[in-house]
Amino acid sequence: MKLPIVLVFQMLLAITLNAQEAQKPVQQWTTHEITLTSEASYTNPYTEVEVWGVFTNQNNDSLKRPAFWNGGNTWKIRFSPPDTDVVWQWKSYTSDQMDKGLHGKTGSFVSVPYTGENGLLENGLLKMSKGYRNVVHQSGKSFLVVADTPWGIPFRATKEQVEIFAKDRQKKGFNTALMMTLQPDMKAEGPDERNTDQGFKRAFQDLSEGHINQMNPDYFQYYDSLIEVLLDHEIVPVHQPVFHGFGWKGKQVLGTKINPEEYVRYVKYLLARYGSYPAFWLIAGDHDANDPGVKESGEMLQLWDCYQQPTGLHYNPCDDYVATWAKNDPDKHCMHYNKSHQAEEWLDFQWAQTGHNDKHLYHKVERMYQNLPTKAVANGEPTYEGMNAGQNGLGWWQGEEAWMQLMHGGTMGVVYGAASLWQWKVTPNEKGWEAWTDQPLSWEGALKLKGSEYVGLVGKILHGLDMTDIQKRWDLANGKPLLAKEGRLYISYLNEGGEIQISNIPNTLNYRWVNPKTGTTKLFGKAAKATFKAPSKNPWVLIITEN
């Protein structure tokens, strides 16, 4: 008997729905973790075996995720479904196909809508905007980086301390945290303990010997808990693998001399462990980005990061000159012009560094904004508050720096730092740093410095605005600072108030003047005229929008 086509369709639909109901539900953009147990024994599992999983669905989508060794005979694969109401099937693969505990394992689950309240997960993982000027969520919502630099958290901080940090920074308006994933100085010494004078946890037992092959899995299990705290407070981690410049105490950093194969392996491990969460990959830290394994890691991320989260470089201060501290030292890598690997497809963003001499230097970001092909840019390291024994970059200096770097083309976002906080000093008088990089505060004391409030306010004031691919358009304002998406959004920062005249503004838009030191609005109304006068001769931010 021939069944009616409608009945056949209903039967197939019922079978499909029943199959989905039997699957484990995994909410979109949350992490589904798969555990594999090896049947073989390895001398060094971290270096001897590669494991990965391939995820496919009924729409013929296929995503590949590397696995990571978690100690003993355990490997894990972490996957974040990018869709909803779809059945995903997975299969594991390994370089040792004889190990049936790792190779050929299968499973399935169904993706379902996210029901939580975390804004990061609600909008999806990060990616670059279509114009490459800044970052957006997978949902398309813009993500303006407002970053702090607690570089020492992974190897110095406790979970309880990171709770304090994350709560404070989220409240102030920060959404990003730059971190050295391990202590990079080969000659650094101290107890193998967190929150201890001179102490730091070891990610690899052989780092002091110039290698990263002997991994301590418990280090990364604890790092998991720190990442969880940051993400719970909607702060995205910036994972820097092995630093290339000053490092933690300036004691022979490993990044300049590392074996390229070891560097790439470690970056891939970080991708496996943290790549299913919101993340940035900062694969060069404080140099010219031509150190061993950097280019190769960028190429690896392009191949293996199925979510294509942002990958970038962070340069040292000497861009087109040789600094006095770099003379006669080829390892200092000057003359990079802040544009190494400019044309590489894997490169998404570049961060300048202006050093810590209490100077506002805007030309670096301005030049980077003009480089082609376009990459998102920012000043990733201005003078940290309290550098030079508590003298440099204090208070409002930080606010002015952030707003002006933004106006000069650093449209990816703004970055803040504080002496004592970046080292994660346990006590105000903990020894080990020269005066130029130190101040008599603990990490918790530095957390309260006034400058962080001003930088955080950048995020609060611009919150909710669609900054996607906004452009530097001083030409529309007779040379005065202006960012614009013509006809829709205009943002100007005037350090001494005064007037600004903007060309071709639709009179249907609305304007408001916001005090960048308090976040309060002073004047607002319809943009009926092309000339806007600030409420006073103090710093003001002008925002002109459609609503």
From TrEMBL:
DUF5060 domain segment(s): 26-93
PANTHER family (UniProt xref): ENDOGLUCANASE, LMO1036 PROTEIN
Protein name as catalogued: DUF4038 domain-containing protein
Superkingdom as given in the UniProt entry: Bacteria
Domain Apiosidase-like catalytic: 130-467
Phylogenetic placement of the source organism: Bacteria, Pseudomonadati, Bacteroidota, Flavobacteriia, Flavobacteriales
Pfam family, one: Apiosidase
UniProt xrefs under InterPro entries: Apiosidase-like_cat_dom, DUF5060, Ig-like_fold
Signal peptide: 1-19
UniProt keyword annotations, A-Z: Signal
Protein source organism: Ulvibacterium marinum
